[in-house]
Each structure stands twice: as structure tokens, then as C-alpha cells.
Amino acid sequence: MEETNKAEEKSLNFIEEIIEEDLKSGKHQSVLTRFPPEPNGYLHIGHAKSICLNFGLAIKYGGSTNLRFDDTNPVTEDTEYVDSIKDDVRWLGFNWKNELYASDYFEQLFGFAQELIKKGLAYVDDSSSEEIAKEKGSPTQPGTRNRFADRSLEENLQLFDEMRAGKYRDGEKVLRAKIDMASPNMHLRDPLLYRIKHAHHHRTGDKWCIYPMYDFAHGQSDALENITHSICTLEFIPHRPLYDWCIEKLALFPSHQYEFARLNLTYTVMSKRKLLQLVNEKYVHGWDDPRMPTITGMRRRGYTSDSIRQFCERIGVAKRDNLIDVSLLEFCVREHLNKIAQRRMVVFDPVKLVLTNYPADQVEMVSSENNPEDPAGGHREIPFTRELYIERDDFMENAPKKYFRLTPGAKVRLKSAYIVECTGAIKDENGIITEIHCEYLPQSKSGADTSGLKPQGTLHWVSCKHAVDSEVRIYDRLFKVEDVGNAEGDFKDHINTDSLHVISKAYAEPALAESTADASYQFIRKGYFCIDKESTAEKMVFNRTVTLKDTWAKDKKK
RNA sequence: UGGCCUGUAGUAUAAUGGUAGUACAACUGGUUUUGGUCCAGUUUGUCGAGGUUCGAAUCCUUGCAGGCCAACCA
Question: Distance (Å) from CA A271 to C1' B65?
Fold first, then answer.
């Protein structure tokens, strides 16, 4: 009865407050947002925050969201990125209303520029970029306007036409807005509107050799689409006066820009430039390397879109710089995977366990639940035999006080099978343990246990005869320092060179042979895993998504 | 040394002049056939200084700290 109240208790972020006011005041009847990536790289978890914000707002207020590619710089952009971006947004679970491109508006943008020229608000400048930079002044020093600013409207119009017609080389001329060379806001000191680039564009081909700058494309694109709330990151705050200036001078739909703080995550980088460097310089094996904070990398690593959306929900939206602890992300993925992951047993670092009182040729099928969190998840059968593999570190000859795994004289439960008691271990000439000997307690079988014993430890195991060889890839953080962005020196100095461990021969229980590409697994006591795209029928390959929370490991460190 | 933005537990984020709350992290304990999950609990906070007010995280003054801005990038 009270459920509606409960749902409404969650407080609004500052953008939701603005939207609710706008809706209430009648400024807008509905909400139209946009997600405006530049197709020059792959999307990362920081973009996911923006995607969840833009699409989430539209969903919450019954509006919609356009996907608009900000493709005004043909030199760095490519359809490869367009495709990956669309794929990532869809995978995250969002549907856009229209798929649009800033390049769709090139003709209109050109017209807008002519309009400004006619109003005496723009001029063609022949200066070099060095001269322009010099005349711009500095934040504390006003700039000076050069002699080209006084050209006649006719001359400006003609030169601008000639720029478009290809009469000039790259860099020979630019179109500039005429605003205020003394403004304390550097972006208002006659900003560049158009530059010449004789470059092939991934959509418009060779039709254009002049391209609008971000500031002359973004706001107008928003306005042409009737975007009500144009949401971007903090570094665009100083651009807002220019955004508003263009809309005002051209008398367009009054889209408004709002800025929020971008996501920063511990132990990783979030800049496309740096990520591109990691890829190009082979620190990782591509954009979808599971160590990358890219959407595609996280997806390959086994993160679910649910968990990423949940993460974006929990980090909140505000205007202060932030550095989110990656453990929150890990918490979100564990939370989801715990509910959906099928439990399996896999031994990574095997040592043989022999049950000396168990018949040599006997194969007994034991039943184990697929997911204790999901009663409907069913059970599977696992072969149990005299010779098993267990983890080497689940046995210690001289165990400390609180160690409750195997040690001579101790009893442990073999998961879903029997309680066993350790009777000794065999070593080779180097003192390495080659075999652990135990006796099993026949009356202690799982589900039919009449032993009355309650050993503290439970171990995972795999029958030697039935073990399936597989490869397991263990990932660690990509960087050694929490705040990579603010760490001293080059960011590459802080790369963790030990972020990938390949276990080429792990032993998996037979049920894993039927793994499917999109399934999530929990290898009991090991962590959450998924099938890698390089996995084959002959050699299965698993990625570790995230470890289980391990309070024992933490205790040991102390 | 110009302009703009931001300061609430370790990290984020609420409280919109009226009991500083929530999540993650950390730490205790309980349950457990995963040292997982689950449950119960503990620790930790309003950048500083003045002022307004019965009452300030919130308003005012001032100081301090951090971030952003001078690409023919977005």
C-alpha cells in the first residue's frame, strides 16, 4: 500500500531538479536529451555514466534520447568507432530515438555561418595559427583583434565561399566569430568557427574541405533537434557562453547546456587519448582487452550491463571532481553475478588427493546445486572418484591456528560429497608434496549425512579422471597507483606490468564443457568467470571477472 | 597573477534555515556444505575564521584548498 512512497524517497540529483522545474513551469513539455560521442575511440565506463544519465533521464521523464555522432573532425574519426559505439550503447540496454550525425547538418551549419557574416558577427582570417594564438592574449592579458577583422561583408562572404570551394590550402584561412578579444573567457576571444581540412570524411566523403569546430556544431545541432537538456562534462562550462551566443545570434531553439563531473575510477585511466596509447603501444591486447575500462573490455571480462547500470546509479551525479573507488564497481558486479552465476568447481593449482579407503574403480555421481541463491536453478551431477584434484594451498603440513582446510589429522568437507580426514602426504625428493592421503567417511555423504560432524572447511575438487583441461586468465588492476591522473610523471610509468596471469592448465568439472558464450559462472571459492571469445571446443578459455570477497586473504596479510 | 566551477566520514552522495542520513570501504560478531551470500553491530564527517538567526552544512563577509580555461581537438 505504501510502496509508492518508498520509491519516491530517493532524492533527486541537480539535473533532475532542473528538469522537474522546467516541466512544472511549462518551459518544456517533454524531455529530449542526446548522447553525443565523437567516433574517434571506444566508449569507456566514463561514457557509461553519461549514457545512463542521458538515457536514464529521458526514460524517467517519459522523453527520449538521440544518439548523435559529433563527427566534425574527419582526421581522427572512423566508422569502426561508429559501429562499436552503437553496439556498446545497445548492449548497455538503451534505445535511441534517432541516429544522427553532426555531419548531417553541414549544409545548414554553412548557412548559419553565412548568416553570421551577414550580421557582421564573423570574418575570414588569413592569419597563421601562431599569429592567432599570439593575438589571443592570455587569461590575464587581453587579446588584440587583427587587421582581417575589418573585411567587408561581401569580401567575407566571397572568401568563405572560396574556402568551401577548395581554393585554399589547409590552414590558409579560418572563419572566426567576432565577439570580444578582451573577454576574460578565452573562448569568447573571436573563436574559430571553421577550418580548412582537405580530408576524407567517413560519411560525407570528399564533399567538404571545410569543417565546423565543436563550438559551432554542437549547440546548433542540439537546437536543430530541439534538445531540451544538453548534458556534458565540467570542462565545457567555459564554452557555455559561446553555446548560448550562437543560439541567440541565430535565433534557434533555446537548448540549454548543463554540466556534471565526469567519472574517475581508481587504478585506471579514463581518457581516450591514453587508452589509445595503451592499445597502440601494446600494453594491452586491443580495445576489448579485459583489463581495459572500455565497455567492450568490461563486457569481455564478464561484467553485466545490469551491474554497470547499477554502478552508474550508485555513484550519483554532481559537480565536484571525484575519484570513485573501483571496489564499488566490483561490489556491483558481484551483487548481480551472485544472483545469476552458475556455480562450478575448477582447480587452478592442482595437487592429487587420494581417498585410500575408496574403491579404485568406483565412479559415484554426486548432486550439487547450480546456484544456492536461486532455488529454481536446479542441480547438476558431478563424478566423484578415489583420486581427486584439490588446490595445493588447501593443504598445509603445519597449519596456523585459524586455518580450517586440510592438515594432517583434520577433517574437511569435499563440497557436495563426503567429509574426509587427512592421514598424511607423500613428497618427492625435493620435498614437494605429490599426493595427499585421506580417508573418506561413508556415512557423511551430502544430503544423507548421519555422521553428526561439522567440519569448518569445505573444499572444491575435481575428479582426476574426469577433469577437463582449460585455460584461465586472471586479471589484476592495470595501474599500480590509485589516482593515475594525478600521479607524478608519465601515466605509463605506473602501469602494472603484472596485470595478466594465464593459468594454462586448470582442471574443470565436466559440466563446464557445455559452457555458453554469454553465461556467467562462479568457480566456487575462486571468483566469477566467463567464457572468453578466444575459447574453443578443444581448449576452453575463461576470464576472471572479479574475485569473491576474501576475508581470509585479508586476515592473512595482517 | 584574470575569469569560471567545486569543497559534507577513507571514497562517493543526501539533507533545499529545524535530529547530519545512505551506499561502498574498514572493523566486530552471528549464520553457513563456498573463509562467498545473508544477518546484526562498530568506527569515521559539514575546509577555516567571523557574522545573521531561537536555530546554519544550508544565508552573508572573508580567507584557504582543489579543478577548469590561452588546440585550425571534442
Answer: 26
pLDDT tens digits, residue range A309-346?
A: 999 999 999 999 999 999 999 999 999 999 999 999 99
Query: CA–C1' span, A112 to B29, in Å?
Result: 69
CA distance A445 to A147: 93
pLDDT band at A9 (very low <50, low <70, confident <90, very high): low
Between CA A260 and C1' B17 the distance (Å) reads 27
Residue A304 per-residue DSSP state: -
* Cell 584439490 found at: A390
Which H, E and C letters describe A255-271, residue by residue? CEEEEECCCCECCCCCC
Q: What is the pLDDT of residues A340-382, one digit of tens each?
A: 999 999 999 999 999 999 999 999 999 999 999 998 999 999 9
Residue A439 burial (CB count, 10 A): 17
Pairing type for strands A433-440 and A419-427 reads antiparallel
**Does nucleic acid strand B have an atom less than 7 angstroms from the CB of A549?**
yes
pLDDT digits (tens, 9 = 90+) for A203-222: 999 999 999 999 999 999 99
Supply A44's cell numbers: 569507456
Find the nucleotide nearest A272 (Cα to C1′): B74
Query: A436: closest CA among A420, A423, A425, A421?
Result: A425
Is pLDDT of A296 > 60? yes
Dump pLDDT digits (tens) for A441-473.
Answer: 999 999 999 999 999 999 999 999 999 999 999
User: A487 beta carbon < 7 A from strand B?
Assistant: no
- What SS3 class is residue A243? helix
Catalytic residues of A: 38, 262, 272
Give the span between the Cα atoms of A527 and A525, in whole angstroms: 6
Between CA A333 and CA A430 the distance in angstroms is 43
Q: What pTM was estimated for this model as a whole?
A: 0.96
Give the count of alpha carbons within 13 A of A101, CB side only: 18
